[in-house]
Amino acid sequence: WLGDGNNVCNSLIGGAAITGMDVSVACPAGYEPDERIVEKARERGCEILIAGTAEKAAADADVIYTDVWVSMGDETESEKRKTDLKDYQINEDLVRTAKEGVIVMHCMPVHIGEEITEGVMNSTNSVIFVQAENRLHAQKALLLKLLKHRQ
Q1: In a domain, 19, yes or no
Q2: What global pTM score does this model have?
Q3: For an engineered disulfide with 17, which of 30, 32, 46, 71 has Cβ 3.0 to 4.6 Å away?
Q4: Which of 131, 67, 123 minimizes the C-alpha distance to 93?
Q5: Which of 36, 3, 87 is nearest to 13 (CA)?
Q6: What is the CATH number of the domain that holds 27?
Q7: CA dist., res. 145 & res. 131, Å (int)
Q8: Sign of the four-CA dihedral 11, 64, 62, 127
Q9: Does residue 2 form part of some domain?
Q10: Are the CB atoms for 98 and 60 separated by under 8 Å?
Q11: pLDDT tens for residues 93-144?
Q12: Structural domains counted in the chain
């Protein structure tokens, strides 16, 4: 995970603990994931590396995941957040530090040129659009299940 240790990062850590995955997180100071979630994941045997740099977190990664730097409600901090997070961009150089065939993910919406470059987003490593399509099908299945129980 690169960038803001926000709700998506925290959910990823929680999911990793359940599924037995290890996670490397690179965030600037003040943007770290929730320490309680990190500790809970570690208690379940999940290896969580809080890396100092994007390069360290991405080294040998199977998947590199990020989110927007300025979420809804954070617009007044936009310039500060962009400055603080600029070293956590997923770009071509960073992708080369990961494993060959690394998968690049983003939960969207994407701000090209901020958290990810256009080249990486449109590369063969990116599953961002597939990820969005899968989310649509999962949401439809959930709606169907919820609506069936109403009858």
Answers
A1: yes
A2: 0.90
A3: 46
A4: 123
A5: 36
A6: 3.40.50.1370
A7: 21
A8: positive
A9: no
A10: yes
A11: 999 999 999 999 999 999 999 999 999 999 999 999 999 999 999 999 999 9
A12: 1
